[in-house]
């Protein structure tokens, strides 16, 4: 039987290559070229949209089968179904804590720096139109329990066809549990799924060869359509969002990894190719398959990776949470809408619910924001027009923060499960070469293996 449901990443060989042959170098070069193209020739940059969207579509094509084979093979390989439930529960508990921390930090930052003060926009002058109007309409139709009702797909095939990660996750867990429950009869099927995963990840390797082209097209379109002038008009809000997100990753997530005796900076460096890919495509989904490979390369058990990462893409959106609290209070400040501390805490409580289950949906940030404003009713929903023009430039930061948050969440759950070999993790982070542990070793590693190493 194959040793792991998540094949060893090809970066093991790539780590030995010169820097100018690494994927991140070419993606960075493509991003810079795309920015220059969109700035100097806006019409050409705008015409590059199909290049970027086609690459992201190719990645999304593989996400649902990767989630399925990883989760099913992971559950099929555990010694008890109770462990699966325990991992899922611990993941959800950590996600709630992370979401609350992100929302609170965004709330504090926007109140301290008040980027919307002095704008004095009149709500009656703000007209919803185009995509923004549609997002508000979708948001008004969202209920606080929508992430529960949307969990169950109308058909198993439909969930895969629509690329709904949350629904595929639900079906995959049920399938994996059933496969485990039938005992030896399901053994050959588990083996076949593990072999299938090797093929799917090989397809991913082929698709990733086009990553620089996709990043060029996405960045050229963004700059060509929206331009740098849009950045300047709301620079304070953009700067505050990026600064708050950086604080969250370095200080908050850094404190979490420090408690695990792991350096946040080495972890970020280890995931640099995934971050660069997200930066170029403005989509955290584009890096999901590679993130799962890299985390498996840290020796984390396959069932933990398979359950935590896909679930986190719907329930652990730290960057989106920071954005929600910043954007909502910014609109209140810009429209001179007074908010008491109690009203802001009520806003935060609603955001804990509206931020869930929207990962992977186009315009998810705006839909969640509109749903929040519509539910609370205190802040004019039309105020989202004030930030609609810069949302594309903020989506990169949301996606980058979400990626970092899910990487750290997986480490925390693995440690919580007593299945994180800190010495092995630090070795991998030091060398930058992913080294998945053999399947027979991916059990509780024991206290002695958790002693920190010098890094």
Automatic annotation (TrEMBL):
Matching InterPro entries: Na-dicarboxylate_symporter (IPR001991), Na-dicarboxylate_symporter_CS (IPR018107), Na:dicarbo_symporter_sf (IPR036458)
Membrane topology: Multi-pass membrane protein
Keywords of this entry: Membrane, Symport, Transmembrane, Transmembrane helix, Transport
SUPFAM superfamilies xrefs: Proton glutamate symport protein
PROSITE patterns: NA_DICARBOXYL_SYMP_2
Ranges where the record places region Disordered: 431-455
Superkingdom classification of source: Bacteria
Major localisation: membrane
Transmembrane domains' residue ranges: 23-41, 61-81, 93-113, 165-182, 203-228, 240-262, 366-390
Protein name: C4-dicarboxylate transporter DctA
């Amino acid at each position: 039987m194959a040793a792991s449901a998540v094949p060893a990443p090809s970066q093991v060989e790539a780590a030995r290559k010169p820097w100018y042959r690494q994927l991140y170098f070419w993606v960075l070069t493509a991003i810079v070229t795309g920015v220059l193209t969109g700035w100097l020739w806006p019409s050409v940059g705008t015409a590059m949209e199909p290049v970027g969207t086609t690459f992201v579509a190719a990645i999304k094509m593989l996400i649902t089968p990767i989630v399925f084979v990883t989760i099913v093979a992971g559950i099929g390989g555990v010694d008890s179904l109770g462990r699966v439930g325990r991992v899922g529960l611990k993941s959800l508990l950590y996600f709630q804590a992370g979401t609350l921390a992100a929302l609170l930090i965004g709330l504090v930052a926007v109140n301290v720096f008040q980027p919307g003060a002095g704008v004095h926009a009149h709500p009656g002058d703000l007209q919803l139109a185009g995509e923004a109007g549609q997002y508000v309409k979708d948001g008004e139709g969202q209920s606080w329990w929508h992430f529960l009702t949307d969990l169950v797909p109308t058909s198993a095939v439909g969930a895969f066809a629509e690329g709904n990660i949350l629904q595929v996750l639900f079906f995959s867990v049920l399938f994996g549990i059933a496969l485990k429950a039938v005992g030896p009869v399901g053994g050959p099927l588990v083996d076949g799924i593990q072999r299938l995963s090797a093929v799917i990840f090989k397809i991913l390797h082929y698709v990733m060869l086009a990553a620089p082209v996709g990043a060029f097209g996405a960045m050229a379109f963004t700059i060509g359509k929206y331009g740098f002038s849009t950045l300047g008009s709301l620079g304070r809000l953009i700067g505050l969002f990026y600064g708050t997100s950086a604080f969250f990753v370095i200080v908050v997530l850094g404190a979490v990894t420090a408690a695990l005796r792991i350096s946040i900076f080495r972890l970020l460096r280890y995931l640099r190719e995934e971050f660069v890919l997200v930066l170029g495509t403005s989509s955290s989904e584009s890096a999901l398959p590679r993130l799962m490979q890299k985390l498996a390369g840290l020796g984390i058990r396959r069932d933990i990776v398979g359950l935590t990462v896909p679930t986190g893409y719907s329930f652990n959106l730290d960057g989106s949470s920071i954005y929600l609290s910043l954007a909502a209070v910014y609109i209140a400040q810009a429209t001179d809408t007074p908010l008491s501390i109690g009203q802001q805490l009520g806003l935060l409580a609603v955001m804990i619910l509206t931020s869930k289950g929207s990962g992977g949906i186009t315009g998810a940030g705006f839909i969640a924001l509109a749903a929040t404003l519509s539910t609370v009713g205190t802040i004019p929903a039309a105020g989202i027009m004030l930030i609609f023009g810069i949302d594309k430039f903020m989506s990169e930061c949301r996606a980058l923060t979400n990626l970092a948050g899910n990487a750290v969440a997986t480490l925390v759950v693995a440690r919580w499960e007593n299945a994180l070999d800190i010495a092995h993790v630090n070795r991998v982070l030091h060398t930058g070469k992913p080294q998945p542990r053999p399947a027979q070793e991916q059990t509780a590693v024991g206290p002695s293996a958790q002693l920190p190493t010098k890094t």
